[in-house]
Amino acid sequence: MSAAAAPLLRVEGLTKHFHTTKNLFGKPTHTVRAVEGVSFEIGHSETLGLVGESGSGKSTTGRLILRLEEPTAGQVFFEGQDISRLRPHALAPIRRRLQVVFQDPFSSLNPRLRIGESVGEPLRTHGLISSAGERREKVAALFRQVGLDPRFMDRFPHQFSGGQRQRIGIARAIALGPKLIVADEPITALDVSIQAQIVNLFLDLQEEMGMAYLFIAHDLGMVRHLCHRVAVMLRGRIVEMGSTEQVFANPRHPYTRALISAAPIPDPEREAARRRIPYDLVPPPPGAVLQEVEPGHWALSAA
Ligand code: ADP
Ligand code: MG
């Protein structure tokens, strides 16, 4: 397949097992199957929501795509190229087009560096600026793009609110003009009113710049407004995947139904009538496979 015809991202049978609690002789005694045979695609300018309970393997999936974690098995194709086993020096040019936004951008910012320098750092390491003046100019433009006053450039990280820090994290992620951003619970830690603003910023930037997102979330509320497609993860496996309309209108897997029932509805009358559907977080049976229940909509079979 040529790179142009390929989806922007394709993961195939992605698997990550962690071996923990080594005994005295270094023998692993416990295996965590964090990600188990996960496959999906993301198209150019598309947003895929990856949702599921805490511990279901969402972050590990994101980290495998970003190559912050080595896969136990499976592949990651980015722009048609298998990047799952590339060495660090071969990964460097790909990092420009594949970026990340974390839940807490504060932890990845140097507390002693003025914020303008932190945001400008990726530009410098990739040789895209030649002077301090040029850096200030480019960083000011990035600040405006994410809705921050460029005068804040000389402040330090602790002087910003949670929402502003997330805007800073996004400014860093878009600095190099990426094709895909893995956003790992970027709004989870924010107040509800701020969450909507950040979701709108993601939407606006996608319209302006055309990048794709893997948007990781543990609840379905904002996912509905932001994502074109949704994949539901349970115990390391995808149990359902389809367009956002398909999954919300016609959820097939009982775990998806439980997740949807747990999300608050903005309409007060319907919210008052909402009943939570309980679900036991039992792992899917090993023999279960994803079956297409309608075009583009997949759900895990019972066995
Ligand atoms: P999520 O992001 O959906 O909350 P994670 O991908 O963080 O889930 O974790 C999936 C599982 O893998 C959890 O059981 C977690 O404890 C385990 N896990 C994640 N990272 C490690 C690690 N470095 N070592 C051992 N276990 C890990
Ligand atoms: Mg996580």
Automatic annotation (TrEMBL):
> What is any Pfam family matched here?
ABC_tran
Q: What is this protein called?
A: ABC transporter ATP-binding protein
Q: What is its main location?
A: membrane
Q: Does the keyword Ribonucleoprotein apply?
A: no
Q: Where are the transmembrane segments?
A: none
Gene Ontology annotations of biological process type: peptide transport; transmembrane transport
Its family remark reads: Belongs to the ABC transporter superfamily.
Which keywords are on file for this protein?
A: ATP-binding, Nucleotide-binding, Transport
* Domain called ABC transporter: residue spans: 9-260
Superkingdom per UniProt: Bacteria
Instruction: Read off the Gene3D superfamilies from this record.
Output: P-loop containing nucleotide triphosphate hydrolases
Name the Gene Ontology molecular function terms of this record.
Answer: ATP binding; ATP hydrolysis activity
The answer on whether this UniProt entry bears the keyword DNA repair reads: no
Which cellular components does GO assign to this protein? plasma membrane
Fetch the CDD domains from UniProt. Answer: ABC_NikE_OppD_transporters
Q: According to Swiss-Prot or TrEMBL, what is its membrane topology?
A: Peripheral membrane protein
Query: Could you tell me which InterPro entries the record lists for this protein?
Result: AAA+_ATPase, ABC_transp_ATP-bind, ABC_transporter-like_ATP-bd, ABC_transporter-like_CS, Oligopep_ABC_C, P-loop_NTPase
Query: SUPFAM superfamilies this protein is in?
Result: P-loop containing nucleoside triphosphate hydrolases
Localization recorded for this chain is: Cell inner membrane
